[in-house]
Design brief:
By secondary structure, the protein is of the alpha+beta class. It has 2 domains: about 35 residues; about 35 residues, no CATH class. It is about 50% helix and about 20% strand. The protein contains 2 helices and 2 strands. It has a two-stranded antiparallel ribbon. The protein starts with a helix and ends with a helix.
Length: about 70
């Protein structure tokens, strides 16, 4: 009986891990569609700048980081 509980718990964690891994891989795929940014030091802090255009970067944080 205790072996069944162990297997159930192991499967639960495996399924949870696979779901998280799938979500992470989807987020990583979208990263290739976004510009490469660099951090530029300013007189009052830092700002993110698009490497190709030199323009300041704007945008919403990725969905996974706002939860």
């Amino acid at each position: 009986m205790s072996n069944i509980k162990w297997v159930d718990e192991a499967l639960y964690f495996l399924i949870e891990f696979l779901d998280e891994l799938k979500d992470d891989s989807e987020r990583l795929k979208t990263a290739f569609e976004k510009p490469v940014l660099k951090v530029v030091r300013k007189a009052r802090g830092y700002e993110l700048v698009d490497i190709e255009t030199g323009e300041e970067a704007f945008g919403e944080p990725p969905a996974g980081l706002t939860q």
